[in-house]
Amino acid sequence: MESLRDRDALIPQPRGNLPKVCAVVLAAVALGIVVLLSQQGLLGWVAMALLIVTLGPLVHGLCLLVEEMVHHSNRYQGRALAKMLPACGLWGRNLLTAGLAALLLHLTRHTLPLKDQWQLFVLVPVLYTVLKSLGIQGLSEAEVSDICESRKMNVAHGLAWSFYLGYLQLLLPCLEDSIIAFCATHQASSPLWGRGSKKLFILIPLDTNIPDKLEEVDDNIRFYDNLPNKELNRAGIQGRVYKHSVYRVHDEHGRGHDCVVEYATPLLTLYRMSQDRGAGFGEPERRQQVLLFYRTLQEILGQSLECRNRYRLIMLNDERKDDPHFLSKAILGHLEQQEKEEFCLDPPPLQETGPQPRIPYANGEWRRGDPMSREPTLMISLESPQPLREPVENTEQWCRGN
To answer: Disulfide engineering: 112 pairs with which of 44, 148, 270, 376, CB 3.0-4.6 Å?
Structure first.
């Protein structure tokens, strides 16, 4: 089983703000150079640069607006133009920045030789529009990936949410009860369930090559039986049947361990998309989507109160497929780790070995206190009892009787 450090290094982390920090540092350095080389007119140069930079996206937005108005007006319901302008980038921050830059340039026009710079205001936006329209000045793959991840537009996000809402959220809350009912009817299987094995072990292979039977991958794994069926009325289907399979996993000493194991079925969709030419989904994109699926599903389940402590995600690295018992070792490794985590949550009580405190009796005598591990002793307070909410008539009589 691969370590947690290797798994964390494999899973892509959300993109941070390092590009923004670098951009701010470069802007500060550039401003410092301009201040050193130009003793006056700093605000004017900044206003001119901002106006030139923002004019390009605005002109390109006008070209996009023409396309939307001519061929795609049916996509916008109601106030079409009011929705087209923000969609083409002709609203909000770009327009506000250009307006502020134009106002600042107008106020500082006396400090700059604008008569010799008007060509820049014409050529730069037009050339930017040409490069943008031809795809030369387009978004990079990292920017597209950042947009898709931040706006939850990846295929992996949809598959993870579908897997959770349509399957895991319905079955995981009652999984432990199903296992208890299963053990009641399978007495031979009951001793083989460890303390931390009463969870759903979800296998996520990076290559998305999922067999129909786990025995085909590892002969140390044998199908034992199915948990009791759960029937739900879903999407017009009356009594739709959901089930989990119990597998017996043998370790190197031949001992069996029963647990509920299955592959993440949405990965079959990713695999078939990569095999279909019409999907435009290659092997590198598939691997990236599997990693995003794992991260998204982990985040969703981590925030779900219904599914908490009822699942275990197992990432299977395809680089170790040369071992014929790789799958059983991975499952057993997670079982062992789960057992340790379960036992660490309930540590045994500490035994007191030092001298014990002296506790007063009600009659004023003293004796040594008993250790915490012994049977509790009755201690009677000398103070009169205080009511929690309101006095009760027979309180004093009850205290005397005890």
So the answer is: 44
